[in-house]
Amino acid sequence: MKEILEAVFGLLIVPEAEDPLDSILAEQFQSSREQYEEEAQKSTKQTAATPIEDMEKELVAEDLSQAQAIEDTLTKQKTDPFNNKPLEVKDLKPNKDMRSMVRKYRESQIQESA
User: Is the pLDDT of residue 43 over 80?
Assistant: First the structure.
């Protein structure tokens, strides 16, 4: 784990412009290092100013609203949409793998927009 964190830290300090994750940032890094560093500092300040708890609350709120939408649909239509068999709210079970994938995707979106 330590090796992974050190590798990530190294990429944060000096990105590999020849093998970029974001070609636009790599171009900016190569053409205008000063502007790149200014933007990086600005982005870091904005992201660091938002506590992780607030970011998590935003993600959890979306999960809760989605769960509420599913429950609302089930009160109107009490059958499974795939097989038309009777279905109740108590029959629903969280898909932990899907939730984990969605959370990772949302976290990546938060980081990209920051």
Answer: yes
